[in-house]
Amino acid sequence: MINHDCRIRRRGPGLTAMRFSLVAVALGAALGLTGCQFKTVAEPSLNKRDTEWMALTPQPEVDPGYARYEVDDPTGEKPGTVIVDIKERQLYYVLPNKRAIRYGVVVGDEAFGWTGTARIARKAEWPSWNPPPEMKRRWPHVHAMGPGAANPLGARALYLFQGNRDTLYRIHGTNEPEKIGQAASSGCIRMRNIDVVDLYNRVGVNTKVVVR
Predict the structure, then answer these.
(1) How big is the CA angle at 160 (ends 70 and 32), to the nearest 5 degrees?
(2) N or C terminus: fewer CB in 10 A for the chain?
(3) pTM of whole model > 0.70?
């Protein structure tokens, strides 16, 4: 992981240092972070299928405000917990030592959003998609799809249950990464495929998830 340290050494007339400092300040402001206490997070390892199918997904420029970073934990939850901040459109995975990994996400739009506490009951790589009956009633054109780059669930899915009841909500990848940072889903939490792979590798079954 690369530590983005705002401290720089002045050399010569200091013009290069000044330019770098201004860029760092602007980036920190865009990320909504203070003191530059953030680190980039190394890309997760991908298998051959991941590489091939993710290459077929649109690759828009990433808004730095919704990029994957390690930050000071703002949640107060125990390490290993996943928290989704609906208002911020950010997902946090809590680390030890009051740190967290922050990912930009798509959240449910106003008509379909939800909040609550759940647990990850199942994990799947490149899952099939079976839209629930209520979704089919709203949008008759949707249909079941097998795994692949065009599948709306993307590279990974984490299935959220409350007790033994399936909420029908998921944390999953997306084939529309350009919508990260928006309220545009039917209640599920969408992530960039590379980000959901990273989160998938970190969490286990029964991980606590708080959507608030």
Answers:
(1) 25
(2) N
(3) yes
Residue 128 has, within 13 A of its CA and on its CB side, a CA count of 6
Handedness of CA 55, 60, 91, 107 (dihedral sign): negative
The letter for the amino acid at 170 is: R
What is the Cα–Cα distance from 66 to 90, expressed in whole angstroms? 7
Kindly report the number of other CB atoms within 10 A of residue 41's CB atom.
18
Q: Is 208 exposed, middle or buried (0-12, 13-18, 19+ CB in 10 A)?
A: middle
pLDDT in tens, 178-189: 999 999 998 899
Q: Could you tell me which of 73, 74, 165 has the C-alpha nearest to residue 118? A: 165
* Sign of the torsion angle spanned by Cα atoms 196, 202, 207, 209: negative
Distance CA(15)–CA(186), nearest Å, equals: 49
For the ranges 4-13, 33-42, 196-205, the lowest mean pLDDT is seen at: 4-13
DSSP line for 105-117: EEEE-TTT---EE
Tokens of 103: 């990912």
> Which pLDDT score, from 0 to 100, does residue 143 have?
85
DSSP-based three-state secondary structure for 5? coil
Domains assigned to the chain: 39-211 (2.40.440.10)
Q: Enumerate the β-bridge partners of residue 160.
A: 120
